[in-house]
Each structure stands twice: as structure tokens, then as C-alpha cells.
Amino acid sequence: MIKAYTSTQLGLLEHEAASTGRRRAHLNVHAELDANVQRLFIATQPDTYMRPHRHPEAHKWEFFVVLEGKIDLLVFDNQGELQQRIEMSGEQTRAVEVPAGTWHAYVCMQANTLALEIKEGAYLPTREQDFAAWSPAENTDRAPGFVERMRVARVGDLLAL
What we know:
The chain is 14% helix and 33% strand. The protein has 161 residues and is an alpha+beta fold.
């Protein structure tokens, strides 16, 4: 059976992201969490915090496509120095593939940003050691300030706390 995703459905996802505490929402395309390929739409708002993390398994690359809005991919070294910043939008870079083991995060730069993420499965929750120890945990007092630092960081900046 063909799966189709309408503008209305994706608009509702953007509305959900705007009304949740995390300020983001996702819609899985894959039917099961143990699917060999994970595919999901992600709607984000500018104040969401996507903590720097990595996928250490050799097969866990991440393919990320911006469909609407603007989001920046940030790539870090092990100490939290920003190595690369890629502006992603319909006018800039539309898609990236992040290699396994790469410290990275996204910072939403425009309201109602919508992206598609594809990565090899099965889904495994990110382990604590695969979140950057130099970044604050989600839902902590330091997270909003860290988001603002990510928003303006330039290559060479050290974001470590």
C-alpha cells in the first residue's frame, strides 16, 4: 500500500511542535521501531533543544533533509569546539548525511521548520555516554542558554560548559 503524507498532516505536525514543551514533534514513516530503516518527519520550533550527540555504531549514519524552514547542522569535536556549521534550507543546503560517530546537533533557525530524517535501524534510545558531556541535559536550567549559544556559534568557538 502506498503511504502518502499531505500538507495538512505535516501542518498539523508543525502545530503540534508549537504546542509541546519540547517544541518539536515527529511522525514516523516506518511502522515499527525495529524497522531496518528509520524514516521520520520532524517539525521544530526555534526554542527547541536538540542536544549534541553521536551515533557510535558503524552503521548509524543520519540523512537529514529540510523540507520547509531553516535549521543549521552543527558538527563538533570531542571537546565541544564547533568544527562545521551548515545552514540548511530551500535556498541553502537542502540535505546532509552525517557519518556515524560524529558529534552533531541541529539548531532551528525559523519557526515551523520541517525535515525528514532517515537512518539505519533499529531504533535504540541514545545512551547517556553518546550525549556530549560538555553540553547540558535537556529540560535543565542551562539548556535554553546553550541553545542561544548554538544559534550564534561560529566555527572555532568552544561551546563546552
